Amino acid sequence: MKRREFIKKAGAGSLLLGGALAAGCRQEGGQAGKTVSGAPAVHTQKTIHWKMVTTWPKNFPGLGTGANFLARTIEEMSGGRIKVKVYGAKELVPAFEIFDAVAEGTAELGHGSAYYWKGKNQALQFFSTVPFGLTADEMNGWLYHGGGMALWREAYAPFGLVPMAAGNTGVQMAGWFNKEINSLDDLKGLKMRIPGLGGEVLKRAGGVPVNLPGGELFTAMQSGTIDATEWVGPYNDLAFGFYKVAKYYYYPGWHEPGTTLECFVNRKAWEALPKDLQSIVWNAARVANQDMFTEYMAHNNDALEKLVNEHKVDVRRLPDDVLAKLRKLSEEVVQELAGSSPQARKIYESFDRFRRGVVAWQQISERAYLDARG
Ligand code: CA
Questions:
Q1: Residue 101's domain spans which residues?
Q2: Contact of 125 with 67, CB cutoff 8 Å
Q3: How far is the CA of 242 from the centre of ligand 1 (A)?
């Protein structure tokens, strides 16, 4: 080996060692970091143990199983160098406290959705879903190839978190109601569980939006604490048994056309990883992002058939004029959000540029095809 190459390699090695020594992660065995060396000395590396806290009930279809899938994929892709233990909501911290728990280092990973953290920063809602906004495929296009991901990272940086897309529900259902929705007036005074920007739109329509974790919705409906609820779609809503407490199941999910689920990593834990493990975690999240969407695609229709045929649920489409009015209110809400801070404006402009571009293409691709297929 030429001397210059040797020095280069030694330099790189010592940088890796420095990074490993700075690791904040709990390491198995003797003195942390002492035997860690640069790649490819995989066998000498200590196992990194991470905790993943989630906003979902443990093992809940799609969402909880998506978190499990991500944990398992990180472990498999890393050859067991990272092990992730998944905690359901309330097992380690309550559902809506996972953001702070990961920021503070109580856990290294969180699995939720960005609109739950609007109290931290309104602009974060763009990274979950926007009423009448992007579908799942479009969201992924914006995030991975349209500048969205860089903006998301920038928005989470002040909290010491590194975000990743880690799942998508596809188009949701509008929700469960115990009365018919024939006009916008039917939403007046309605106390409904609906998070994020959709909740703001409901408020403008005269309703009363509340946000509750998924695991509390059935009881809230049963006891009459809320009059109506949205959750996700047939696959998840069947699992919660909402057909027992509500008569009408309305579509389409105008408020959540393709909700992105997230995984966020404590920044210190992230920075302590060597580059190959960072790539593994990032790419495991990309796989999990796609896998969850395909899980919903595979199971929603079966669940819908069960709801209709076995449980006799009345599935209805929201009237056109109700959707048109909700769309107008949504535009107002999103415009106000865009005006709420320079950061929100910047994210909105990127999102909106992408949306306008993709609408023209979707007209002659997905929409044209689905119309033709019938
Ligand atoms: Ca929802």
A1: 48-170+258-297
A2: no
A3: 14
